Amino acid sequence: ISGGDFYIGNDNGNLYSIGLSTGKINWQVNTGSRIIMTPACDTDNIYWGNLGGDFFSVNKLNGKINWKKKLGSLFNITPLVTNNYIILPDQYQKIYFVDKAGIIQKTYSFKGRLKLSPVIRNNNILFLGYDNGILEAYEIFI
For residue 107, what pLDDT is reported? Predict the structure, then answer.
């Protein structure tokens, strides 16, 4: 939910912007593959991935695709949007740091599948949870 709209994906690969007060569809984008990830947003854009391995940035107001990245991953965990980056976990034991222009700045691999949405505390401690109940914290500078 952002402002007067909410954003939701479906099994047919569509992402919708829907007015909270009207229930009317503002716009929709077809991604071509099932969406189970909860979208994340900043003031201008929506970010989400699908089970076809694509990750998107779309303008919140008009639904125009800013960029699309074919990463070949399964995306089902909500990404974390910071001032400069989208921190994007996948089901193939990786986490991507994607800048707002859609360029992957860093990729890290783990010994398990990431299961929890990333969280930042105190502006520089990143918490990640993955298989077998493991929770790890990392000091980051982004």
Answer: 94
